[in-house]
Amino acid sequence: MKKFLKYFAVTLIAIIVIVLVSALFVKKEYSVQRTISINLPKQEVYDYVKYLKNQDNYSVWSKIDPNMKREFRGTDASEGFVSAWDSSNKEAGKGEQEIKKMTEGKRIDYEIRFFEPMKSTDYAFLELTGESEAATKVTWGFFGKMKYPMNMSLVFMDMDALLGKDLENGLTNLKKELEK
User: Fold this and answer.
1) pLDDT single digits (tens) 145-164
2) Prediction pTM value
3) Angle at which helices 159-179 and 42-49 pack, to 10 degrees?
């Protein structure tokens, strides 16, 4: 029995060391983006999406818990505006999103700070490109970094599949909202 426990302990330690060493070489960043075409002029689309509060109308994450507590700080559609949420639903959790940079008619960059169920800071953007005078390509992107050794989970998680579906559904909701 002592021999078994000794081999078990050595094997367990070896596995932990292999995982920790492997994590040194695993990517730490991830990036996901999706695109949709909306049949409206670029400025009209931008004038809608620049208001962070409007994400409640199309983002699937905003719809997870209709009873979540919401708080807004600053002037919407301007740099520094913060939309915060607090939900007892672990899928929604607690966090806030801040407009960090706006390029008029073209792009909005956000910083998303998650507090619960786990702390992290990620980044997102909405980018608009005119396809014609009456159509706009909207790209919604999300990217972030996982610290060592948590980055090892990126080997087992397909962030593109996990986040991509939510971005696609959100863009589909945006298209429906704007084209109605």
Assistant:
1) 777 676 566 566 777 888 89
2) 0.83
3) 110
